[in-house]
Amino acid sequence: MYKRFLLSLSLITSLFAITPVYAENLKLASWNIAWLGSHKFNQRTEKDYKELARYARQLDADVIALQEVENSDYARKVFGDDYDYYFSTKNWVQRVGVAVRKSKGYQVSSVEYKALDVGRVRYGMDITLSKNDEKLRLLAVHLKSGCFEKALDGKSVGAMANSTKNAKKNKRACEKLSKQIKPLESWIDQRAQENIPFIVIGDFNRRFSKDIELAHSEEAGLWQAIDDEGSEDMWAPTLDKDSQCWGGYYKDYIDHIVFDPKARQRYVQGSFYQLVFDGKYSKKLSRALSDHCPISIQLEL
Prior knowledge:
The chain is α+β, with helices and mostly antiparallel strands. It is 32% helix and 24% strand. The protein has one domain (21-300): Deoxyribonuclease I, Chain A, CATH 3.60.10. The protein is built from 9 helices and 11 strands. The radius of gyration is 22 Å and the shape is globular. The chain starts with a helix and ends with a strand. 40% of the residues are buried.
């Protein structure tokens, strides 16, 4: 009897020993909710906020990189109280922030990445998520707008026309975006030295597909600048896809989720998703919701 008991106990112990520890899925998203703040450009009604909240429920993400959101008060109008919010302190309504779902139980470390501010542009948010001895490092960004595919090397930017108001504006945009390359590369270089998966996520205001199509040099293309070899061999699911936001009105993605090799190993294949709004594009409707549709992926952590 005693031997049978020991045998049963041994079998039960063996079963527990071989029971696999299943990875937990984390849904990570990015959403530029245009002018969600106290600026005069935000003319949203209560009905509009309810619609945004409906799409936020559909998105159902655990961690969301936010752009053009002024602070946590405005974020809660869309995502509610189920998230902790981490926002930059840049004195401007278009702030970068990150929302982390409370129920996921992550320890969160956050610090502003001010090096991206090369002159009246937005800070980044550097976030570390920790749980069960696993860590994920995120840099949420909103880079300078207005230089979506032009070459960024000094010679090309210097040769840009500046005889009209619009030309001067475009040239300034390219000058600032080109200056943001160095601090962005620096952050990636530092993370590549660590043994922690990392992702750069947000509104890059750059058509990476065009960088690739135009075969820009490392000095001229933002994608070429950040995509190196080895531990800096970056990848994004948006590289070979067309955006369907507002019926394809904005065909090329400028919002991206960029993985290092370690983070890519955690990527759930086929999980990239773009949440497309209902209705046909109009300026009025895009201002009520956003000109950006949220994108998301899933990771196994």
